[in-house]
């Protein structure tokens, strides 16, 4: 099951806000055995949201949008998805009940801006917002799943378990293991990484992450990661690759790791 994350907001595209949501969503889903293949950022503009959505519907099984669910005029994510898919936008009864309860308990009026957060495309289900106000959305469309969550990190985070529940259990297990290598430049260790990858040929990816300068006391984190049919399967393949790599590093560079 391939997944894409769309981060929606002018503040993200222009660089005012760092898109930490996409990273957190992807990390959560990857650790649960799912494959995230795209991160896309776009402005709070219907045409831009639509372009991103329609492209990704051809590429992935699940799309998760983050941002643009609030009461302000630029919060147009749900409305844009509705227009894009040509689905009527309607007042969702469950979302309306939740908003009524929240606002009326504070003796606040249900203004047009607040009611806007209860409108969903026809057929959509809500994802309850346990850390804020605007409900999230879950929509099945043409065999695909579309989720929309708020841009506020704590609100987005509170909806991740519900997203996972709707997606179901992945048929794959994921694992990542790291090793720290001191005193070897990334350019020097690159051929050895390729060598081990080719020799093992077992589907385990090997990635180097520099933590210092190439020419001045280089420090590398070498990551081994991949998916397996079971936890035992992926663990065995990663451990054998890790062991092979460690031994070749020691033999070639005479270092201890």
Automatic annotation (TrEMBL):
<protein>
    <submittedName>
        <fullName>Molybdopterin binding domain protein</fullName>
    </submittedName>
</protein>
<dbReference type="Pfam" id="PF00994">
    <property type="entry name" value="MoCF_biosynth"/>
</dbReference>
<dbReference type="InterPro" id="IPR036425">
    <property type="entry name" value="MoaB/Mog-like_dom_sf"/>
</dbReference>
<feature type="domain" description="MoaB/Mog">
    <location>
        <begin position="4"/>
        <end position="171"/>
    </location>
</feature>
<dbReference type="InterPro" id="IPR001453">
    <property type="entry name" value="MoaB/Mog_dom"/>
</dbReference>
<dbReference type="InterPro" id="IPR050101">
    <property type="entry name" value="CinA"/>
</dbReference>
């Amino acid at each position: 099951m391939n997944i894409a994350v769309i981060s929606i907001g002018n503040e993200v595209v222009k660089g005012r806000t760092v898109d930490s949501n996409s990273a957190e969503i992807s990390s959560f889903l990857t650790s649960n055995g799912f494959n995230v293949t795209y991160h896309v950022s776009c402005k709070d503009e219907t045409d831009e949201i639509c372009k991103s959505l329609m492209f990704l519907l051809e590429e992935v099984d699940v799309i998760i949008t983050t941002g643009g669910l609030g009461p302000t005029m630029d919060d147009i994510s749900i409305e844009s998805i509705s227009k894009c898919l040509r689905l009527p936008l309607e007042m969702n009864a469950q979302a309306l009940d939740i908003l009524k309860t929240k606002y009326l308990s504070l003796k606040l009026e249900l203004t047009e801006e607040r009611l806007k957060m209860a409108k969903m495309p026809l057929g959509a289900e809500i994802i309850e917002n346990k850390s804020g106000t605007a409900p999230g959305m879950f929509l099945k469309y043409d065999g695909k799943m579309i989720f929309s969550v708020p841009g506020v990190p704590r609100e987005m985070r509170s909806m991740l378990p519900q997203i996972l529940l709707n997606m179901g259990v992945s048929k794959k297990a994921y694992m990542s293991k790291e090793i720290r290598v001191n005193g070897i430049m990334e350019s020097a260790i690159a051929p050895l990484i390729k060598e081990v990858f080719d020799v093992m040929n077992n589907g385990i990816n090997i990635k180097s992450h520099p933590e210092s300068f190439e020419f001045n006391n280089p420090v590398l984190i070498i990551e081994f990661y991949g998916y397996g049919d079971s936890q035992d399967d992926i663990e065995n393949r990663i451990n054998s690759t890790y062991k092979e790599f460690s031994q070749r590093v020691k033999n070639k560079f005479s270092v201890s790791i």
